[in-house]
C-alpha cells in the first residue's frame, strides 16, 4: 500500500486512510479503531493469507495480550458491517485473506 495514498477503493467501498473513514455511496460506515486497523492490514496484503498472529501483530501491536480468537470476532464484524462475507476468506489452518479486487 502506498503510504502517500489517501483513499483506497475496494468494490463499492472508499477507505480514507488519513481520516480513518470508510464509506459506501457517500454514506459513512461506523468502524471501531481496531476494525479499521484490521481492514487496513487486510487491504495492504490483498490476496495474501495472513495468520491470526500476523493480524494481531499488525493491527493490535506487540503489546497485545489475549486470545488470537479475538481476530475471528473482529473479522466477522467487518464482514457484516462492510458486506464482505464472500471477500474476506477463511484460509483453513492459516488465517484470513482478502480477495483480490484491490
Per CATH, the architecture of the domain at 32-97 is Orthogonal Bundle
Rg of Cα set: 13 Å
Element-level helix/strand string: EEEEHEHHEE
Strand content: 15-25%
CATH superfamily of the domain at 32-97: Winged helix-like DNA-binding domain superfamily/Winged helix DNA-binding domain
* Biggest sheet record: 4 strands, antiparallel
Classified by CATH, the class of the domain at 32-97 is Mainly Alpha
Outline type: globular
Termini gap: 10 Å
Give the CATH topology of the domain at 32-97: Arc Repressor Mutant, subunit A
Helix/strand/pairing class, anyone?
alpha+beta
Biggest sheet, spatial arrangement of strands: 1-2-3-4
Number of β-strand runs: 7
Unreliable stretches covering 5 or more consecutive residues: none
Mean pLDDT: 88
What helical percentage do the residues reach?
Answer: 25-40%
Count of DSSP H/I helices: 3
What attributes characterize this protein structure?
102 residues; alpha+beta; Arc Repressor Mutant, subunit A; four-stranded antiparallel β-sheet; 7 strands; globular
Amino acid at each position: 500500500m502506498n503510504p502517500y495514498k489517501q483513499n483506497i477503493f475496494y468494490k463499492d467501498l472508499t477507505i480514507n486512510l488519513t481520516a480513518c473513514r470508510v464509506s459506501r455511496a457517500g454514506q459513512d460506515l461506523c468502524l471501531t479503531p481496531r476494525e479499521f486497523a484490521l481492514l487496513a492490514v487486510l487491504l495492504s496484503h490483498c490476496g495474501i493469507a495472513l495468520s491470526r498472529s500476523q493480524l494481531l501483530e499488525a493491527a493490535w501491536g506487540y503489546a497485545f495480550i489475549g486470545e488470537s480468537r479475538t481476530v475471528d470476532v473482529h473479522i466477522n464484524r467487518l464482514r457484516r458491517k462492510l458486506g464482505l462475507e464472500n471477500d474476506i476468506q477463511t484460509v483453513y489452518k492459516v488465517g484470513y485473506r482478502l480477495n483480490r479486487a484491490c
